[in-house]
Design goal:
Blueprint lengths: L7 H8 L3 H7 L11 H14 L5 H8 L4 E6 L5 H16 L3 E6 L3 H9 L5 E5 L15 E4 L11 E2 L3 H14 L4 E7 L4 H13 L4 E7 L4 H13 L7 E4 L2 H13 L9 E6 L3 H4 L5 E4 L2 H16 L13 E3 L8
Parallel strand pairs: 1-2, 1-3, 3-4, 4-5, 6-7, 6-8, 8-9, 9-10
Antiparallel strand pairs: 10-11
Length: about 325
């Protein structure tokens, strides 16, 4: 026996509201704001419980929209982007949107997507310089972890990387470290330039030994750079890495050289992806709330599509998660 697809009538009955109210909640336009926040949440909770989604075809005819958004990420295999995608999908359902993910995109790909009727709007996450180009005027777009100066006035959601990096360096100096190693990404992207600038500001007055890492070459490149850093006669006893994958390469290099973490070298990463808890010992890392980035981005895009006023979004707070990879001198 085939189960029946849930309908708006089913949602209305479960939520204790009229079908008209359900329609308003899923309208995707200004009409939806006529429903109170409490009632809206009750309707959405009922819809999630029933697995209800509004019919895309009817919605497109009614609103002149597809109900689809495109999330563009540099590399779908990057573990951090899984966190972003989780938040995007979670929030998209609340706004009656479906999301398609594009990886390895180019400026031309984005321009084509912006002029296509397939997508109502775009979310562009952590772009590198080569992926940015002029979008057609009026394109509904929100940039995530990207340079506001390159966004052409479009809404941008960023992390508080300056505050986060300051907390990471303060943690190490509080443990007595005055010579720091730095494994920085050589990738030409705004997010890594901001990380570097934030580190330099936080580490002013300290001795820093720095090596670049090509993230496109992955963990192997990080291991090679870490071997060079840790083989120095004046090697540092604490290293700040540009992400957790780079930190895992440093763990490998330390083991190659017979060094222990944190006995011989303390290690701090950035991102707080799953690998951070899988390493031995677990990695101290700066948590970038990817899920919150995704949720905020899609909620902002929904406001852009609804033609409501979009307020500037404050940088999302970051936090240092202290685990066993750091210790005092």
């Amino acid at each position: 026996m085939t189960s029946r697809r849930p309908t708006g009538r089913d949602v209305a009955a479960l939520a204790g509201v009229s079908q008209a109210t359900v329609s308003l909640v899923f309208s995707g336009g200004e009409a939806g704001h006529r429903v109170s926040a409490a009632t809206r949440e009750r309707v959405l909770e009922a819809a999630r419980g029933l697995g209800y989604r509004p019919q895309a075809a009817g919605r497109q005819l009614r609103l002149g929209r597809s109900g689809m958004a495109m999330l563009a990420v540099p590399n779908l295999q990057g573990p951090f982007f899984g966190r972003v995608l989780e938040g995007v999908h979670e929030e998209a359902a609340r706004h009656g949107l479906d999301v398609v993910v594009s990886s390895g995109w180019s400026a031309a790909t984005l321009a084509e997507a912006a002029t296509s009727s397939r997508f109502d709007g775009l979310l562009i996450c952590s772009p590198d310089d080569s992926q940015l180009g002029a979008l057609p005027p009026g394109t509904p777009v929100v940039f995530l972890d990207a340079d506001p100066a390159a966004a052409g006035g479009a809404p941008t959601v960023e992390f508080d990387l300056a505050g986060g990096m300051a907390s990471a360096v303060a943690h190490l100096t509080g443990l007595g470290h005055r010579r720091l190693g730095r494994l920085r990404s050589t990738h030409s992207a705004h997010t890594f330039r901001v990380r570097q600038a934030a580190f330099e500001e936080a580490a002013a007055g300290l001795e820093v030994l720095e090596y670049g890492v090509s993230l496109n070459e992955g963990q192997a490149a990080a291991r090679t750079a870490a071997l060079a850093l840790l083989s120095r006669p004046d090697r540092p006893h604490a290293v700040v890495c540009d992400d957790d994958v780079v930190a895992s390469g440093l763990y490998q290099a330390a083991a190659d050289l017979g060094l222990s973490v944190p006995g011989d070298v303390s290690v701090v990463g950035i991102d707080n992806i799953s690998v951070a808890t899988m390493l031995t010992p677990p990695l101290t890392t700066l948590d970038l709330p990817g899920e919150q980035l995704g949720r905020t981005g899609i909620a902002t895009l929904a406001a852009v599509l609804a033609r409501t006023e979009v307020a500037a979004v404050a940088p999302l707070p970051t936090s240092l998660v202290v685990r066993a990879s750091t210790r005092g001198v």
